Structure formats: structure tokens, C-alpha cells
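Hi there, hope your week has been kind to you so far. Please have a think about how the structure follows from the sequence. I've dropped the whole record in just underneath, so have a look:

_____
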Amino acid sequence: MFREDLSRNFGIILHDVARLLRLSYDRRMRALGLTRSQWWVLTHLYRNDGVTQSELAQVLEIDKPSLGRLLDRMETSGWVTREEDAKDRRAKRVLLTQEVGPAMKKMRAAAAETRKEALFEISEREQEQFVDTLLKLKANLASLENRTFCEESSLEKTTESLGQ
């Protein structure tokens, strides 16, 4: 049986690093009384406040009913609100509240501390190069996903028109 040496496989290393970052941050967030699901939602809203509930479910890669229940609890806690979308009454926009401000400040400080620990003994130049490389990887993969989506969409349209 073929065995590949995976010790330098960047996909596996990247996955392991992301998992370890989440675990380290989880520990800090537990001290604030936040679950991973909660801090993940708050972080995404911090990046893009006012997204629709559907968009948030998609980016978090969770089903809409599960996110709805989580948002119910977070809304009860006063951390988020949901408002009707001005253009689509069926859609709900999710927004951070003013009450979550102090928690967000602590979350951002904990995130900075987590990054600082992860980047220990890595020079500023290496850090910049690392981030630049990650951004290129992200762009490459996003482009590939977009091309694949366009190709699948085109194929579906062709198949539909042939079936009619």
C-alpha cells in the first residue's frame, strides 16, 4: 500500500494549526462564558455586521435551523438583534447590539494574545510573508471555487434546456 509522508503536507499542517488556534481561543472564551458557536457568530458579525441569517449560516457552515436556535439564545442574552431586510421581507439581518461591546473588546484582546503566542519567535518579516502567502492561497482557492460554480451552473442550464 502506498504511504505518503504527510509530515510536510501544508493542508494537514494548516488544518492542525487552525484546530490548535481554535482550542487556545476556546479556552480563553470559556473564561468569558462563551461557547465556540457563540464566539464564532460574534466574530463573523464583527467582520460583517448585518449579514442575513442565511448568509451567516452559509459562512459558518451550519444549517439554518441550528443557527436560528443559537441566535434565539444570543438575542435573549442581548448580544444580537434580527431585523427584517429592507429589500426582502423573508430575510432577517443579524446585527450586534451595543450591549455586546464590552465582550467584543475582551474577545479581540484574547484573539490578539492568541495570535501573539502562536507567532512567538517568528520575525515580523516572516509573519508578513506568511500572511501574504495565506492570502494568495485563499485567492487561488476562491477563484477555483468560483470557476467550478460557474461551470456547474452552466452545465445545469445546458441540461435543463436539453430536457425541455
